[in-house]
Structure formats: C-alpha cells, structure tokens
Amino acid sequence: MYIGIDAGASATKTVVINKEGEIVSYSIVPSGINFKVSSEKALGKALKISDLSLKDILYTVSTGYGRALVNAEATSSEIMCVTRGVHKLFPSVRTIIDVGGQDSKAIRIDENGRVLNFVMNDKCAAGTGRFLEVMSNILGKSINELGILHFKSSKPTKISSTCTVFAESEVISHISKGSEIEDVIAGLHEAIAERIYNMSSRIGFEKDVAFTGGVAKNQGFVDALSKKVGLTPTLPEEPQTICALGAALAAIKKHGESASHSNLRSN
Amino acid sequence: MKIPIGIRDLCENPTEILNRYEDSGVKVIGFTCSYVPEELIISAGLQPYRITNIGANTSALTPSFVCPFASATLENIIKHEDFFSGFIVAHTCDPMWRLYDILKKKIGKPLFLLRVPHNTDNELSLDFFRMELMRFKKFLEKNFETRIDHSALFSSIELCNESRDLLKSIYVLNSGGEYKINAFDRFHLVLASMWMPKPEINTQIKALNFNNGETYGDVRLHLNGTAIYDLVLLKTIEESGGFAASDDLCTGSRYFWSNVEKSEDPISALSNRYLKRTPCPSHAPLEQRLEYINFMIEEFKVQGVLTFAEGFCDPILYDSVHIRNMLAKKGIPTMVIDYENPAQEIGRIKTRVEAFIESISG
User: Distance (Å) from the C-alpha of residue B181 to the closest C-alpha of chain A?
Assistant: First the structure.
C-alpha cells in the first residue's frame, strides 16, 4: 500500500491507495499544533478503516504546510499533489482551483497532467478557509450551516474589506444594522469567491475547471465561485483529500524510482 | 568546491570587514550599485565597498511605499557612516536616487550622485556618462586630495578586469549543461569581490578547486531580477532540487560579464563598459536584457526562469511579463517570486520554488 499525507494548516488528511492507484481508505483529522501527532492519528485511522497495519506500507509521501514535520520517505509540493490527484480522477480537467485552510491556489495543467502555470495567495489568508472560520465564529454558525444558509439569501450583502480583520468588523456592523444573516453569509462567500477569481484570472480558466480543498465542501462558496467563473465546476466526492491522494500517487512513482535513481546529480 | 571560511563569514556579516579597514587606516567609499565604476575609487587610493540591505531594517526616514531594499540600504549607510570616508549613490531607479536627498541631510561625509542615463544605447548617453565620470573623478580628487592620473587608472582597470575575468571563468564552468558550481557558492565569490580588496579576493579565487564531487539538484534554472544579497534565497533553490546555473543579477553576472577595453582614453572606455553592459531593469533598452537572458538560457541549458522581485520593484515586474512571453514560445516556464524579507518569508517562498522545480522535473 502507498500512503499520502497532506499535513494542512487546518486539517491533516491521509489517503491509502493500492499499487493500481485505487483509493483503499482515507481519513481527515484536525491538524492541531503538532503535525507529527495529527499525521500519526490520521494514518492510524485510515489504516484501521481498511484493516491494514504499518507493515503493509511500501512508501509514504507527505505534502502540505507541515510536510517536513511528518514521518514520510519523501515530500512533494501541494501544487504537484493536487494536480496528480485531480488528473487521476478527472483527466479532462485543465484548471484547478484549490482552496484550503490557509492558502488558495489556481493551477493550469495540460492533457498529460503536467503543470503549465500556477498562482498562490500571497502573504495573506483572506481568500481561504481561515477567513470563513473566523466569520463562522462571529456569526455563531458552523461552517456547514454557512453552506446551507447561503441558499436562503435573496440579496447578498456587499463585503468590501479584503482584510479578514476589517471584514470581521464590517460583518458585525452589517448585523447590527439589521442585515439578514443569510445575506451576510452569501456576501462573505461572494467576497472570498471574488478574491480567488481575481487571483486565478492571472492564469485563466480553461475548461474543465475543478474545485478542490476543504472549502470546496462548502456549497455556498462553490455556488458563489461557479457564478463568478461562469461555469459548472467538476467537484470531487471528497475535495479535501485530493492533495493527499496526489501525494499517495507520488509515493508509487517515488517508490519505483528509489531503487534505481537518485534525485541528486554529482559532478 | 569549498568556499573559504573567511568569505563565508564575510557574506554572513558583510560589515565586519569595515573594522579591519578602520584598524589598518584604509579609507572606504561606500557605493550602492554596479553602475558605479570601482576603477575610479581604487585609482584614488580608496577601497570601494558595496553597501547592502543586509542586517538592517527598513528606515523610518522613508515612506512605507519605498522598496524595503532601498530603505534598508539607507539605514545601513546611516548606521555605519563612521566607517566610511564617502558615499556614491547611483541614480538608477527612483527610490535609490531619493536616498541621495535624504543622505544630504543626514550624513556629514562627502556624497556624490552619479547620474546614469536611462537610455543606455546611444552616443548622447555615452557622452553624458563620460562627462559624469569626469565629474566623479573630480569629486574624488577634490575630497580626498589626490590626483587620479592615467597610469593609476590603467592599473585599476587592469585589476578590475582581472577580477571580472576570474568571476566569469568560474561562471562559465556551468556552460553547456555542466554542474560545476552552484549559485550559493558563486554568489559568495561575487559579493566578496565587492567588499574585499581586489588583489586579495583574486588570489583566493585562483586557489579554488572545482572538481571535488559536489552533489547538486537536477533542474537547471536561470535567476532574473536586480540584486540578491540574502543568500538564503539561493540555498532554498538548491534545497528544493534546483541548480541555478545562470543569472542576470546585479550581484551576479551583470557585475562582471564584460570588461573595460584598453584605450588611450580610460574615462571613455569606462563609460563604454558601464553603459553598454546589460542594463538594470530600471534602464532601457529592454531588448538588450531579453537578448542577454536568451543567450544565458541557451549557453547554460536552462529549463526554467525564476524572477526574484523584491517588493515593490516595478521595473522587474514589468520585465517579467516580457520575459514570460518570450520564453513561453520556447516552452521554458517562468515564475515570479515576490518577497520583502526573505528570512521571514522563506517557508512561503520555498513552497513556490519547490512546486516550480517539481513541475519542471515532472
């Protein structure tokens, strides 16, 4: 079995695949403050689901924010892992928009799954899952509720601040002025969609477009971004584990290479 | 190859050598960029020293929209003023030029603004720069009570040519797809050449051995941008499996790629060399830069180009679009890394660099 661990800023995901690249099991646990602990927990959980043990593991690749801190034979960047994961499941996808806990990225790929170009959010987590977490806290609604309430809005409130802290004040002021909570929620989804759309526009939206990452589980956000981009996105069944799937696919490749080839060159 | 420990220490703490100069009574002239002909400073019996942003925070004297590089350079000048006998500021981009106005009010040492014409490819500019170098020469002669005669200038040109030849000879070891010296080590040598007495660094470079089986990353990259002093950026590329085979940086190949020609009129020869070399992104013509990058990519068998855009350097960002478009036709990917403080942002930078390198190696 091959393991991919995506130690993300917010959640740690583990995917177990067989040598054919088929998903055997997966798990998602909160990252907390210790990636080593959370990754072991996620791995244990995924192994237990598929009735496997550590000795069944041939190779592990880690990715994500905490990739260097977890137990794995090799690491791979999030960009490559998301790309591998999406290309495996949906070979017709040419643009990926991945929104995670702390970063958002847009990737253009070709028909062979090669990365042509990519952009990532810079220095600021305003267009990411963390933004929605902060808002869900002050609104007293869970992330799941945000997705549901979004569709009850008839007139989304315009949230103009891009900074999370200022947007928080703006939301409080809208609520205190009597705005409907579902309108504010839809407004927040539009604000984050707008930000991600602007970033992704730099590389364009060639069809098919896939949405991945934990935030793609929020239907409200998916609705806002789909409208902004103007097309129906390809959505994986479990968007949050795509990057870990890509890491597991990298594990197959690296396991094959490790015997015969070293990554480094000597002069 | 092993970089001598003295050079490693110097690059970690470039101002340390100023104590040595002070103890031995060497008069040091600080200069801000590679458009300043060190030949003139050396021929006046003075030691040139390139001022950097290393070890300084941004200055409270500049507004927040000024690039952190210029601002920290200003801070370093003010902080270390006592070690210097004078300063030369080159008018390249506007933030660097405006340092001159602030310094006029803030320091007591002789200060010279060297105006570098922004269109570098015409006779008028060459003439102007020649006159500007005459003015620079007079500034040195007047303030340091010396006379720069032709023979002093000829020998300093020879010394600087030797330094450039040595740096270039190391650089071209990577030609044609070779993996001989990584950017991290190479930049140590270039930077040390801007801080140490030339005869001393030249001797050390000559003694280096380049065939002792170093291991390097596979993916061959070209580095584009202005100046990099913070070598952690280069370390990151190498740790991510990249091999920065070539560059067009002010602290890299642009500093030494061409020489001053032998001439009866050394000032004209200097004007020619400094204006005709590949121009800084703040200067025209763009086409000359593109041609240079193209040449580097062919010569060093480059697979991808990384642009280092220190915040908020507009000229680099404008250039990056032309470079991207030019290289897209050749199927060579490019990526812009923007940053303000490499030490604080290295995690974010590394994620991008790793992804870029991995996307090339497949």
Answer: 9
